[in-house]
């Protein structure tokens, strides 16, 4: 079993009932719906299909809505895509045209003004590079420097330029309503620039009465300047390396990734590492050795989840990709190279009681040889914080709330478990005795650590930690 979770992007290649079921069985913990592509009706249908299949499989599948955010995209080509060759001219315009080999529309007002002063433009996650050669009226003339296939609705970046776009576009607001109505578990916002962007999203989500968690996608350098604020305003972050690698030098991205994972761990927030992890497997049967190392290093750094994009959305064999990613994760997690480097002095020193109890639970588990840590949670916080301390034993995330069950499935090494009839500590311990044995995580007379967030009149929730011997209540 892989402790690090796998996020799969659902697309044309993985939207059938057969493929969704196979992906869940192969190791998909989180299904990502990319609202940059597809219609609202399509996404509604996919959410409902995923929910039904997950229920049939008995899987606590988490569903994440990924909003487009303030990303500039090109329009559509008459044939769906074109091949650009180095040295050829290619024009961009904000006028309404159908794309061809000679040019395409860009979906933003005053394209010429935004491009003025830019030496280069990057498309399709940096895979295609254009050199600006001139501007005439509403048209930007360019020459292809790095070519390749360019398809409908790919993103375009203006390195070094701040985009004059609100954090939530009109499309995002409409899409957000779909996600809330379909009761998605997480909502991810693209191109977050600072805490204020996440605060705006939180305001809208709370106003709608939704309990969805919020994920900040880190794709712009200015986001790293306000990383603490973004972490404080979010339930988790995503290292979106595609666009991040366009906006900053490629050699800076690996260190940025390590910093984000480290700071998210310290703050007790989920972190997803994304983009081009097994890119070659979109069409190939095997990953490159560099890709395998990339996945392994993200696991060693402490990421909660690794994400597949085109590999599962449009790839030739989505299930094989998930199986390969799981193999890499399991091999890495079983290695002696994986150590829990964190020490108490490295934690945030803000007097956070939740972090202190989570830390104590992990230390107690290691010192006593406990077989598992049971984190009973009403909101998901208890399980998340224990998971972020990177224990060497499984974290059984027990909850009575089906939504929380799905949300904690994003957490590394968390085994979600839906329970009933927990009304206090005594009843919880009886449920623990029964479930840890049924799950095969512990046997009678084994020790487990129980951490609980129980409502017992305290102002703060994570308020119980206990060393428990399975079966001792009898």
Structural account:
- This protein has three domains: 5-69 and 167-333, TIM Barrel (Alpha-Beta Barrel); 81-157, M1 Pyruvate Kinase, Domain 3; 344-469, Pyruvate Kinase, Chain: A, domain 1 (3-Layer(aba) Sandwich).
- With 474 residues, it is α/β, with parallel strands linked by helices.
- Helix 1 crosses helix 2 (40-57), helix 1 runs parallel beside helix 12 (318-333) and helix 13 (353-368) packs across helix 14 (381-388).
- The protein has an eight-stranded parallel β-barrel, surrounded by nine helices. A six-stranded mixed beta sheet has the order 6-5-9-8-7-11.
- Helix 1 links the parallel strand 1 and strand 2 (28-34).
- The model has no long low-confidence stretch (mean pLDDT 92).
- The protein is 36% helix and 24% strand.
Defining key terms:
474 residues, alpha/beta, TIM Barrel, M1 Pyruvate Kinase, Domain 3, 3 domains, six-stranded mixed beta sheet, 16 helices, 36% helix
- The parts where pLDDT drops under 50 for at least 5 residues are none
Structural class: alpha/beta
| Shape call | elongated
Q: How many separate structural domains?
A: 3
What is the number of helical segments per DSSP (H or I, 4+ residues)? 16
Largest sheet: 8 strands, parallel, barrel
| CATH homologous superfamily placement of the largest domain | Phosphoenolpyruvate-binding domains
Q: Would you count the extended β strands for me?
A: 21
Helical content (DSSP H or I, runs of 4+): 25-40%
Strand order of the largest sheet: 1-2-3-12-13-14-15-16
Could you tell me how far the N terminus lies from the C terminus, measured between alpha carbons in angstroms?
A: 31 Å
The CATH first-level class of the largest domain comes to Alpha Beta
Question: What is the CATH topology of the largest domain?
Answer: TIM Barrel
Multimer state:
single chain
Approximate strand percentage: 15-25%
Average pLDDT figure: 92
CA-based gyration radius: 23 Å
Name of the CATH architecture of the largest domain:
Alpha-Beta Barrel
């Amino acid at each position: 079993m892989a402790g690090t979770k796998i996020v799969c992007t659902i697309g044309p290649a993985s939207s059938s009932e057969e493929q969704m079921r196979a992906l869940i069985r192969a190791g998909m913990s989180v299904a990502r719906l990319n609202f940059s592509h597809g219609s609202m009706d399509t996404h509604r249908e996919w959410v409902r299909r995923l929910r039904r299949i997950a229920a049939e499989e008995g899987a606590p599948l988490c569903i994440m809505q990924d909003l487009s955010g303030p990303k500039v995209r090109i329009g559509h080509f008459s044939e769906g895509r074109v091949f650009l060759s180095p040295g050829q001219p290619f024009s961009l315009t904000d006028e309404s045209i159908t794309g061809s080999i000679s040019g395409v529309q860009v979906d933003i007002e005053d394209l010429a003004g935004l491009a003025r002063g830019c030496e280069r433009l990057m498309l399709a996650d940096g895979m295609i590079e254009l050199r600006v050669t001139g501007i005439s009226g509403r048209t930007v003339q360019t020459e292809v420097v790095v070519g390749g296939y360019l398809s409908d609705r790919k993103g375009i970046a203006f390195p070094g330029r701040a985009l004059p776009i609100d954090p939530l576009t009109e499309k995002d607001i409409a899409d957000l309503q779909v996600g809330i109505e379909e009761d998605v578990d997480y909502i991810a916002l693209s191109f977050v620039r600072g805490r204020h962007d996440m605060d705006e999203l939180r305001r809208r989500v709370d106003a709608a009465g939704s309990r969805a968690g919020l994920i900040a996608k880190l794709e712009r350098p200015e986001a790293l300047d306000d990383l603490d604020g973004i972490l404080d305003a979010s339930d988790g972050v995503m290292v979106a390396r595609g666009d991040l690698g366009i906006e900053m030098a490629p050699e800076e991205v690996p260190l940025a990734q390590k910093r984000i994972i480290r700071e998210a761990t310290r703050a007790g927030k989920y972190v997803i590492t994304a983009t081009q992890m097994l890119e070659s497997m979109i069409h190939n049967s095997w990953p490159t050795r560099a890709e395998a190392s990339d996945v392994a290093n993200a696991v060693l750094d402490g990421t909660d989840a690794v994400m597949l994009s085109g590999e599962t959305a449009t790839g030739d064999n989505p299930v094989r990709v998930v199986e390969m990613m799981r193999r890499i994760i399991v091999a890495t997690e079983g290695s002696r190279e994986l150590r829990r480097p964190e020490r108490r002095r490295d934690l945030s020193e803000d007097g956070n009681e939740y972090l202190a109890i989570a830390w104590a639970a992990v230390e107690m588990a290691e010192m006593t040889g406990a077989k598992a840590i049971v984190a009973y949670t009403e909101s998901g916080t208890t399980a998340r914080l224990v998971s972020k301390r990177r224990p060497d034993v499984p974290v059984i995330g027990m909850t009575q709330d089906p939504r929380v069950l799905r949300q904690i499935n994003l957490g590394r090494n968390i085994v979600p478990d839906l329970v009933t009839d927990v009304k206090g500590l005594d009843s919880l311990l009886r449920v623990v005795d029964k479930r840890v044995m049924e799950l095969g995580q512990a046997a009678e007379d084994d020790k487990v650590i129980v951490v609980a967030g129980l409502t017992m009149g305290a102002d703060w929730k994570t308020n119980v930690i206990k060393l428990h011997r399975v079966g001792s209540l009898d």
